[in-house]
From TrEMBL:
It comes from the Eukaryota. Signal peptide: none annotated. GO terms for molecular function: serine-type endopeptidase inhibitor activity. This is Serpin domain-containing protein. It comes from Denticeps clupeoides.
Amino acid sequence: MPALPDFNVDENKKVSVDMMYRQGFYDFYEDKENFTTVIRLPYKCDASMFIILPDEGKMKDVEDSFYIKYLKDWSLELGMPKFKISGSYNLNGILKEMGVDHAFDGNADFSGMTTSKVAVSEVEHKAILNVDEKGTEASAATTIEIVDMSTLDQPKTVIINRPFMVFITDHTTRSLLFIGKITDPTAN
């Protein structure tokens, strides 16, 4: 499949991106009523990445009304940009609300770690999601590869060349592990 190097950030801005391509069977659903295409990329563990690709100019509508729909197993040739997103979250307030506030004052006992009088000043959680041909690397889990399960003569082609959303879910716990919106894959 020829490379489509342009990613349409919005109607006025395009950026060149490294596209990666893979052909195989993926759970796939086109929702004309809600202006979106949903693709599930399974991992080797009990997790999956969902790509939600809104129709042109429909990101806000999809964000406002998104529900995971029934997916169908279709043969797809999928093209999407490599991307990396990250987020930082300060956990001081949450930990204090949970009763872990003594560690933040000068009376905390850290004698098992140091002889100095210390206290926790900052607790920050950073989540990183990096997606390329090798697979997906996330702060919570690392996967190896999306396997090419089969090829068909005429697969449907889906090119992710405009803003999209990504979810990573754990099937066992039914937990949402990561959520993000990619508007410009060239921005970190």
